[in-house]
Specification:
The complex is a heterodimer of chains A (about 1050) and B (about 350). By secondary structure, chain A is of the alpha+beta class. Chain A is built from 22 helices and 31 strands. In chain A, β14 and β15 form a beta hairpin. Chain B is an all-alpha fold and about 350 residues long. In chain B, α8 runs antiparallel to α9 and α12 packs antiparallel against α21. Classes of the chains: A alpha+beta (about 1050), B mainly alpha (about 350). Chains A and B meet through β25, α14, β28 and α20 of A and β1, α4, α5 and α6 of B. Chain A: This is C2 domain-containing protein 5 isoform X13.
């Protein structure tokens, strides 16, 4: 009996009128957990009942605590007939099971009914007393922390990253059971909601067990999905990255080492006292989670970026042995695992050594009924197959690991497309297990300085390339080879040197497909898929070139299957990586050169494309090498010269010399116009309009090139469903429609958010589904963040001007550096870019501008460190105040409760308002520090209506439902004592309508991390004042923002 | 390709003030789009008409959902569905309850019933305000009226507490409720020159002095009903004009003081008895509900119009009314000084406000 759950029902408010005669309600509450049910007294004739119940106590296994949701049902008492249900509240008590997270759930929860939506609120208090379960055979995994965030959460430190965890559970979908024919829609919806809640609890528990087995204590990048397979069942699956996390609790631990270059290690995991003596490479690392480890010894710590530098030696011949060593280590750490995958998209410094490229795999399956829910072998086997494929792709790229890994499905009738994708990468093995660090290795590593380009260097063998690519020497360090373009599914590494700003790039594609059954259908889809992949890729490449950029981050390709078509939508954030070569333009070649007017047309098109590229370069401030080259007097050798210079390193220089001529060959950059289709393609390339001035957009966490975020954020979800005119649809018409749909949607967003400019839409996440024939549904969730335009202008100006001004000055400095850095002189553009990065680091940490200016002077390592120290110091401050702020927010979360207290005697008055809860798909909140993670929010709702017209049609229905979902998420976060949800994601929004029957149904699944954040400005105030005093200002500040 | 569904939901509810105004003014989505296009927004933002249409629809839907909450503003503050910053909440409420001068003049003092609601069509045609907007304004009046009608305590405070309006707007609503409750006639042609502000001013004075709440601020504090006892007592004032000696004495007292001070002294002297009769008779008639309703008509007929036809300047009216009320204190045979002050104090204020072109 290892746990006692205690629940108290305090009060209700704004209840609906259930008794028409009296215009009042006789409400009571049923509290159910597992098979135990308690009831409150009936509170007669009130819409604002005050139950003030006793504590209802449930004595339960911790296994049940994890699986079961607490179910609270509000009913209207009826003497003669059956009691009417008003609505329900499901409370996931998981956050109460970790020691550090929330200790109590207390607040107003919206009472939700699947037919009527939110009907009033109920005030509930929930507590859990856990008895320690000592080392027995455990079925529960209480205490394993879950994070949706796909990076190491802000107030934690990764000690070990253990690797991939996955699990899936299946069940019959209640909606498809025979009983559904006789029960009400409400009962059916509730059965479904409850089942999914149970299944996700079970799934989380099972994953937790796997994590414990791996000796981890947390799952980061937890992604849980539902597959509604219809007749064949309901699958809930999840993937994540198991880690051992340490709470950054004692700021003192950081201070001693601030003056040594090893300070970078403060953030990086795995600093071991050698006395630990554990240097084994076996895959079950021994660790003790002691918080004091950091302070014990810094001698083994290494600026991790350096590691990056050496690792990349693998590309050159001279790096051979080291490469082998590195590979060996990584192998030992990762390859013994079945799947060396990480769901992370951002990494602790030093973990990511090289990036190979995007790896993806898809497979088309026919769904069959799941006969035995306890043995979901088929589904497991399917995924295992796909993962195996991903793994082998990664291997072909010379990588041992896959990062930024994700899985998805698209289901239509009995056909299911399973997709997995990620980024092949070489990781630093030290993070993946303990005690493997070899001193001698590090010494070699330390000889090189970090330059922030290491991840671009190719991990694969140049002579044995997995695919044709044009390699060139890295434009940043001049030492290793880099590809001409780089596609990844991860976020832009924070140390990456970027020129200009990034932008959202989308490839959109539709393909008609004949309606078919079963195998024939699956075959047709399988046959189409490679073509779609190819076209999506080509489109992405062309659009990237058109933007004058050379790398994609956060790439997400979604292929959706419908009755009679397939849709592909790829979103990514394009950037210009300073380390990669300048992209070539796009050349158009006609097939029939004899026709004069045709020629003219072609050249006209060519001109338009060239103009667009030029315009885009200006728009995104991409003005790299050339400018500075001239001014400095060409310190950078011409590409050809350079290749000659470097040829001494026994490389075949062919690719390098070919680089600038590459359009001569028939490759991705040459668009051959041989028929109308191709013409359309070119046109569609040019129809993408850039966002209006003052707007930027990206689908990654942070916008490359913008760093001065201000605190205003607006998260939103926008849904559009369009009906295609069914008459003679062609692929072209379809493409055009789809393109128009997406472009218009973006335009609408820009228009709606125009009052926030200058701002950036971050984490723009498009989801396409095909709910019916001829219906396309696009769902977008993103967050708009404002930034300081003046500062931005200064930065960009500085960017341009300083590179001019300082060109000469820097030149002198450079004379000293090149010797240390590399024999070649550094391209000067690296300086301003690096500077930007520095600024981003320092502005993130809230350093005043003056201080920043001094630290920005040159991009030497020491300086980078000093700004790093600033960051650490501030972090330390955050931590110190963490506990203080927590109490503050708990108070803050309860004004609703307090309000009610006041309201018990008097009618509600103007003074009490609802606390603000921020929501964002990002892992951070600009201008604020996250001080505490309260637990994962994972909610599933169904809403149905049989009076669609009366509720404002489909738009009115869905608008209200999404608003309600937001409200319920906010209420749960507030009840946990939090004031924000980070890494918020709407994983599913399945909408079905039947207008002729005046009916509609929608399923929504959302998740995120509930957190407590403190404004940086409040932090400063706090350090100046007594903590108790400034609880007030921070509260009011919250409300007004 | 037709759009079946098109929504935008923000974690913080987006409120576009311009669209809100158009919605409040009762324009249909299409009219609102047309008006927005005319405002040049497309040129400013580079948006297309389709974007504007979608945006307008979206805002209209949001306002429609918010409307239910706006009917009971405290609910807007406590609800969890829409996250709206307090300043925006205040703006939403204030604008929702703001009314058009032209409209309020049409319904001021009318019974807020279904019958009147049918007249809204005519009002809409007459004032050029959309029927939808008329309905909203009428329903607002009615809703506020229903809530505070039977409530104790200060009328303005009650309105402010239950509808979270600004002080200014709450006062206006107090006047509307007061007029509706007492059914003062304001629609006669004679009264057309008066603005809502004029009436609201009078209403405030009357609430302060002539209601039950004015005498006893603790118990039975009813601001909406006139003090019946007081109205009954007003009959006693009749002696001022019925008793010839008293009337003459009163006249001589006033004339002595004002001689040489008024530019219209002779006109005043000749008209004194008529004016005095008028004012006192108005008081004496207030026992009948019908006469209460005609209060403003009577005041204009019996006092404002005669003075205006003789071209009394406002300063002379003020001097006269002051002297006229004060002199009564020197009338030895008159015993109802307190009553007189309660009546005349308010009336003087009202008359001065009503006296303009």
């Amino acid at each position: 009996m290892p746990g006692k759950l205690k629940v108290k029902i305090v009060a209700g408010r704004h209840l609906p009128v259930m008794d028409r005669a009296s215009d009042l309600t006789d409400a009571f509450v049923e509290v159910k957990f597992g098979n135990t049910t308690f009831k409150t007294d009936v509170y007669l004739k009130s819409l604002n009942p005050q139950w003030n119940s006793e504590w209802f106590k449930f004595e339960v296994d911790d296994e049940d605590l994890q699986d079961e949701p607490l179910q609270i049902t509000v009913l209207d008492h009826d003497t003669y007939s059956a009691n009417d249900a008003i609505g329900k509240v499901y409370i996931d008590i998981d956050p109460l099971l970790y020691s550090e997270a929330a200790t109590v759930i207390s607040g107003w929860f919206p009472i939700y009914d699947t037919i009527h939506g939110i009907r009033g609120e109920i005030n509930v208090v929930v507590k859990v007393d856990l008895f320690n379960d000592l080392n027995r055979f455990r079925q529960s995994s209480c205490g394993v922390k879950f994070f949706c965030t796909t990076s190491i959460p802000k107030c934690y430190r990764a000690v070990v990253i253990h690797g991939f965890v996955e699990e899936l559970v299946v069940n019959e979908d209640p909606e498809y059971q025979w009983i559904d024919r006789i029960r009400t829609p409400r009962a059916s919806n509730e059965a479904r909601q409850r089942l999914i809640s149970l299944m996700s609890g079970e799934l989380q528990r099972k994953i937790g067990l796997k994590v414990l087995e791996m000796r981890g204590n947390a799952v980061v990048g937890y992604l849980q999905c539902f597959d509604l397979e219809g007749e064949s069942g309901l699958v809930v699956r999840a993937i994540g990255t198991a880690c051992t996390l340490d709470k950054l609790s004692s700021p003192a631990a950081f201070l001693p080492a601030c003056n040594s270059p090893s300070k970078e290690m403060k953030e990086s995991p795995l600093v071991h006292p050698p006395s630990h003596g554990c240097r084994s490479t076996h895959n079950s690392p021994i660790h003790t989670a002691t918080g004091s480890r950091l302070t014990q010894n810094f001698s083994v710590s290494v600026p991790t970026l350096i590691y990056t530098g050496t690792g990349s030696g693998s590309a050159g011949k001279e790096g051979g042995p080291l490469k082998a060593l590195l590979r060996q280590q990584t192998q030992s750490a990762l390859e013994q695992r079945e799947f060396p995958f990480l769901t992370l998209t951002a990494f602790p410094p030093g973990l990511l050594v090289h990036v190979g490229g995007v790896v993806s795999a898809r497979s088309v399956k026919l769904l069959d009924r799941i006969h035995n829910p306890d043995e979901p072998e088929t589904r497991d086997a399917w995924w295992a197959e796909i993962r195996q494929e991903i793994k082998s792709h990664a291997k072909a790229l010379g990588c041992h690991a896959v990062v930024g890994y994700s899985e998805s499905t698209s289901i239509c009738e009995e056909v299911c497309i399973l997709s997995a994708s990620g980024t092949a990468a070489v990781l630093n093995p030290r993070f993946l297990q303990e005690g493997t660090v070899e001193g001698s290795l590090e010494q070699r590593i330390e000889e090189n300085l970090p330059v922030g380009c290491g991840f671009c260097h190719i991990p694969y063998d140049e002579l044995n390339m997995p695919f044709p690519a044009h390699l060139t020497y890295c434009y940043n360090c001049r030492k290793q080879k880099v590809p001409d373009v780089l596609f990844t599914t991860i976020d832009l590494p924070t140390d990456a040197v970027v020129v200009g700003k990034g932008c959202l790039i989308q490839a959109r594609l539709c393909r008609l497909k004949k309606k078919a059954q079963a195998e024939a259908n699956a075959t047709a889809i399988s046959n189409l898929l490679p073509f779609m992949e190819y076209e999506v890729h080509t489109q992405l490449m062309n659009k990237l070139k058109l933007k004058g950029m050379n790398a994609l981050f956060g790439l997400r390709i979604q292929i959706t299957v419908g009755e009679n078509m397939l849709m592909g939508l790829a979103s990514a954030t394009g950037v210009y990586l300073a380390a990669l070569p300048t992209p070539g333009g796009i050349q158009i070649a006609g097939k029939t050169p004899n026709d004069g007017s045709y020629e003219q047309h072609i050249s006209h098109m060519q001109k338009k494309i060239n103009d667009t590229i030029a315009k885009n370069k200006e728009l995104y401030e991409i003005n790299p090498p050339e400018v500075s080259e001239e001014i400095i007097g060409s310190p950078i050798p011409e590409p050809r010269q350079r290749s000659r210079l470097l040829r001494s390193q026994s490389e075949s220089s062919d690719e390098v010399t070919e680089l600038d001529l590459s359009h001569g060959k028939k490759d991705a950059f040459v668009l051959e116009i041989d028929d109308a289709d191709a013409m359309e393609d070119v046109h569609s390339l040019l129809t993408d309009v850039p966002p209006p001035s003052g707007f930027y957009s990206c689908n990654t966490e942070i916008m490359p090139g913008i760093n001065n975020w201000t605190s205003e954020i607006q998260m939103f979800t926008s849904v559009r469903v369009v009906r295609l005119s069914s008459l003679n649809l062609t692929n072209q018409a379809l493409n055009k429609n789809f393109n128009g749909l997406c472009e218009n949607l973006l335009k609408s967003l820009y228009f709606k958010l125009r009052s926030m400019t200058p701002c950036c839409l971050c984490h723009v996440n498009f989801t396409v589904s095909l709910p019916e024939d001829e219906l396309i549904q696009v769902t977008v969730t993103a967050v708009a963040i404002t930034f300081d335009k003046n500062q931005a202008l200064q930065t960009t100006k500085a960017h341009a001007e300083k590179s001019l001004q300082r060109a000469s000055a820097d030149n002198e400095e450079m004379l000293q550096f090149p010797l240390e850095l590399c024999s070649d002189s550094l391209p000067s553009h690296a300086f301003p870019a690096a500077k930007e990065h520095l600024e981003s680091a320092s502005s993130n940490s809230g350093t005043p501008a003056a201080q920043r200016a001094t630290s920005v002077d040159y991009s030497s390592f020491a300086d980078r460190c000093s700004s790093w120290i600033e960051l650490i110091k501030l972090k330390a401050q955050t931590i110190r105040r963490g506990s203080i702020k927590t109490t503050v927010t708990v108070e803050k979360a309860s004004p609703m409760g307090d309000g009610n207290f006041r309201n018990r005697s008097a009618p509600p008055c103007a003074s009490s308002t609802v606390g603000v809860v921020k929501m964002t798909p990002l892992s951070f909140i600009p201008g604020a520090k996250i001080t505490k993670y309260l637990g994962i929010i994972n909610m599933f709702f169904i809403r149905e209506t049989t009076s669609l017209r009366e509720e404002g049609g489909v738009s009115g229905f869905l608008h209200a439902f999404i608003a309600e979902v937001f409200a319920m998420v906010r209420a749960h976060v507030a009840a946990l004592g939090g004031n924000a949800v980070v890494s918020y994601i709407m994983k599913q929004c399945v909408f079905m309508e039947n207008p002729s029957k005046n009916q509609a149904q929608c399923l929504i699944n959302v998740s995120g991390d509930a957190v407590v954040f403190v404004r940086e400005s409040d932090l400063e105030v706090m350090s100046a004042q007594q903590p108790a005093v400034n609880c007030q200002p921070s509260c009011t500040g919250e409300v007004t923002t | 390709m037709t759009s079946e569904l098109d929504i935008f939901v923000g974690n913080t509810t987006l409120i576009d003030e311009d669209v809100y105004r158009l919605w409040l003014d009762g324009y249909s989505v299409n009219d609102a789009v047309a008006l927005r296009v005319r405002s040049g927004i497309l040129e400013q933002t580079g948006a297309t008409a389709g974007v504007l249409q979608s945006d307008t629809m979206d805002h209209y839907r949001t306002f429609h959902m918010l409307e239910r909450l706006l009917h009971a503003p405290p609910k807007l503050l406590h609800q969890l569905i829409f996250q709206i910053p307090p300043s925006r909440q205040a703006l939403l409420i204030e604008r929702y309850y703001t009314f058009d001068e032209a409209f309020v003049r049409e319904v001021l003092g009318k019974k807020l019933s279904k019958g009147t609601k049918k007249d809204l069509d005519d009002i809409s045609t007459k004032t050029g305000i959309t029927l939808k907007s008329c309905r909203r304004q009428f329903d607002n009046f009615k809703r506020v009226f229903k809530v505070v009608e039977e409530m104790r305590g200060s009328l303005v405070d009650n309105i402010q507490q239950h509808f979270l309006l600004s002080d200014r707007l709450a006062r206006d609503y107090a006047a509307i409720v007061f007029f509706a409750n007492n059914r003062f006639e304001t629609g006669k042609k004679k009264l057309q020159y008066l603005s809502f502000g004029d009436f609201a001013f009078c209403a405030e004075l009357m609430i302060q002095n002539w209601t039950l709440g004015a005498v006893d601020s603790q118990m039975d504090d009813m601001d909406v009903d006139l003090d019946k006892e007081f109205l009954q007592d007003l009959k006693e004032l009749k002696v001022l004009v019925a008793d010839k000696d008293l009337l003459d004495l009163h006249k001589s007292l006033v004339c002595t003081v004002l001689r040489g001070k008024l530019s219209v002294f002779s006109e005043m002297e000749t008209n004194f008895k008529n004016l005095s009769r008028g004012l006192v008779n108005v008081a004496a008639k207030l026992t009948h509900n019908k006469d209460v309703r005609d209060l403003f008509v009577d005041l204009v007929e019996k006092f404002v119009e005669p003075c205006r036809s003789d071209h009394w300047p406002l300063s002379d009216v003020r001097l006269f009314l002051t002297q006229y009320s004060v002199s009564v204190h020197s009338l030895d045979g008159f015993r109802h000084q307190v009553l007189w002050d309660r009546y005349m104090g308010t009336l003087r204020g009202c008359l001065l406000r009503l006296y303009h072109d």
